[in-house]
Write a structure and sequence with these properties.
Chain lengths: 268, 198
Amino acid sequence: MTYIQLAYGDLVLPALLVVMDSALSLALQLKLERQLAIATVRMVVQLVLVGYVLTFLFAVVSPFWTALAAFIMVLFASREIVVRQKRRLPGFWSYGLGAACTLLAAGTVTIFSLLTQLHPEPWYHPRYALPLLGMILGNTMTGISLGLDVLTNGLMRERAAVEACLALGGTRYQALLPVLRDALRNGFMPTINGMAAVGLVSLPGMMTGQILAGVEPIDAVKYQLLIMFLIAGGTGLGTLAAVMVGGRLLTDNRHRLRLDRIGAERAG
Amino acid sequence: MLTVIALTRLHISASFELKDGECIALQGPSGVGKSLLLRSIADLDPNEGTVKLDGMLREAMPAPLWRKQVTYLATEPGWWADTVEEHFSRWDYAIPLVGRLGLPPSCGTWPIQRLSTGERQRLGLARALMLRSRVLLLDEPTSALDSNSTANVESVIAECMSNGTSVVWSTHDSAQAHRVGSRLFVMSSGGRIEEHQP
């Protein structure tokens, strides 16, 4: 397996493309140059740091450091879920639900693939565990945040319908079912669309990376298929858990709709 | 008999008894808390106090079972499916009642979207009446209806009452309150109810 190594100097010329974007923004008065500069600096710093952190983790192969890195990734994912909500769940649950469901879904699916398909030695080897977790986490996070967003907004919008069903003696599950279905459908949709378009519209980043690193395309495809199946499983599990628990949190044991538990709508 | 003792929700507080076949007309300015009271009796919002049906505490039974016996009907009833008949467990059983409320049997296939406010109100009432509840909590059930449809609704409810159903009927129409109510309650801005002579 051979690949063309890059030196930092090799990146100078491509980086000029970003400078070109800034120039365009200035010329057309798009006022994007500041945002573009910040985003570029963030990207460079974050990726270089991650490079060094991964180098360290791969060198020590410690269960403690691997678990800590995984935990920090889950924390960032749950923060991202909360930020994407137009309306937030109450108190602890605003972060807790997203974190618990991402951890449950992405963690289970990652460990499942490590133990049954990849068999690295040791099984928690960060070279396998962390990239896998990262890819599954990103997609699970999107599913959960979309699902929860549709759930809370749907309950606000369909309040009269839900309460009509409750008033006629429906259980909270019966009353919420149309909104729950909607939320689950929305949570799954990006994954389904992604699976349908992959290979035709886009070549996935991981597969491209492996091919650039000298892996035979058909071997890279097998890895990509594994990842896509894991993503589908993780997103399904995570979205289902988040939407069902979210539905329970927004009702109570007397089968009442408790929209008072949703925070006020945030601007933007 | 429905017994309400010190039922409290936000600023409202109420105690009364409602015998079988009796109708309480509930009046009071807009925003005073009439809907809150009706919703609290049906246990649709968190509330405190004691509510019993024939001496049985509502907490002693699952909330869905309570609401099948003590049924709240909102002024603008909600709809969760696309067509009218999907909201009824047996649409064919509901057709005679829907006819008495002035709607054709074919309205079962009508999309909810094309119903007028008045049609929604009458179909919402029909849907609630199909439960044959012991107590009906009607929140301005004729606010969007013309005088003919209002008379139809009043006669259908009167028939339910003659079969033993009790009713709390919130209305802004004083003439209607006197027509339908065997007792008249007025809610003041403090959220208290006072019984007036009809």
